[in-house]
Specification:
- This protein is about 45% helix and about 15% strand.
- It is an alpha/beta fold and about 325 residues long.
- The protein folds into two domains: about 170 residues, Spore Coat Polysaccharide Biosynthesis Protein SpsA, Chain A, CATH 3.90.550.10; about 90 residues.
- Strands 1, 2, 3, 4, 5, 6, 7 and 8 form an eight-stranded mixed beta sheet that branches.
Length: about 325
């Protein structure tokens, strides 16, 4: 156990790839760190590497260079709850000595429930070893091209340094993103889940693209434009999975031309969203999480729903 972990023992690495909420996500972390005695914004590193595998590598490198006991990688589409940093600190303190990674729950807009994604707490002394595994695929593990960070976590678990998922709600994930970002994110996810189902659904990160598409379709019918765009991405990602390897996208470049997306935007008369005011990020996650109906949630795994219900009643 790491009961004596202090806020000054953590390096926070925020990974940005053009997310509309990047400044808001950074602002939340800054606000919450300085509320702790000994906390400083100098503990925050901002990474703008592409593709995401490069951002993962830089996360591990920065953590090792700064040499604080814990390194936390946070994607810029994650908006922490008001007690987010406090809860991350608690998870580091509760981690088992042999664990490499600890993570908590996000309420994901396009999944439609709570999932483990977007934040990873790493034991820094193992980062250099983990960096040697970037890009390598282990048996039963995810494709490192599509899920580079999960692939590293799985590879480290395979050599004895485990992964812990705590049923602690940390943030809202994928809310308030640009339409283009949503399309490419869900295109990647659609391809990833289609390939995982084809190759064997028992793999880490495996899902059901049909169920994901069905959920987004339900929300799109109700008028949610984000879910409509997400549905386009899922459909095109599933199509990508069926193409010959030589014709697939190895990385989904945010700045490349995507004519399938552009055509749909024109046909539906969509206009890209305006700037997201970072001041709007304060309390945002708490509001959307409070509004989420756990009692009718069919997307969150049952054991997580039960764990969250017990915490609510406590």
């Amino acid at each position: 156990m790491f009961d004596n972990v202090k806020i000054s023992d953590i390096t926070f690495v925020v990974r940005s790839a053009g997310e509309r909420t990047a400044r808001g996500a950074l602002r939340l972390i800054e606000q919450q760190i300085v509320q702790h005695e000994g906390g400083s914004t100098s503990q925050i590193e901002l990474v703008n590497e592409r593709p995401f595998s490069h951002a993962v590598r830089r996360t591990l490198e920065l953590g090792a260079e700064r040499a604080r006991p814990w390194t936390i990688g946070i994607d810029a589409d994650v908006l922490l709850v008001n007690q987010g940093v406090e809860r991350l600190l608690g998870m580091c303190r509760a981690a088992k000595p042999g664990s490499f990674t600890v993570t908590g729950l996000m309420l994901c807009k396009f999944y439609g429930g709570f999932v483990f994604r977007g934040v990873h707490c790493y034991r820094t002394e193992l980062l250099e070893r983990a960096a040697t595994l970037i890009g390598k695929r282990t048996p039963g593990g995810p494709d490192p091209c599509l899920k580079p960070e999960s692939a590293v976590v799985h590879a480290m678990e395979a050599v004895g340094f485990g992964y812990e998922g705590h049923p602690v709600v940390l943030a809202a994930h994928d809310y308030e993103q640009s339409f283009r970002h949503i399309y490419l994110k869900l295109r990647m996810r659609g391809r990833r889940e289609a390939e995982a189902m084809r190759d064997g659904g028992g793999k880490i990160g495996a899902g059901d693209p049909n169920a994901l598409a069905a959920y987004c379709r339900e929300r799109a019918v109700l008028g949610d434009k984000d879910h409509l765009v997400a549905l386009w991405g899922i459909e095109d990602g599933v199509a990508d999975a069926s193409r010959p390897t030589s014709e697939r996208h190895e990385s989904y470049n945010w700045f490349a031309e995507w004519p399938e997306y552009d055509r749909r935007v024109r046909d539906h008369g969509l206009t890209e969203k305006e700037h997201f005011d970072p001041r709007s990020s304060t309390g945002y996650a708490d509001c959307v999480i409070e509004a989420h109906r756990l009692d009718i949630d069919t997307r969150t795994p049952k054991w997580i729903r039960e764990a969250l219900a017990q915490r609510t009643m406590a």
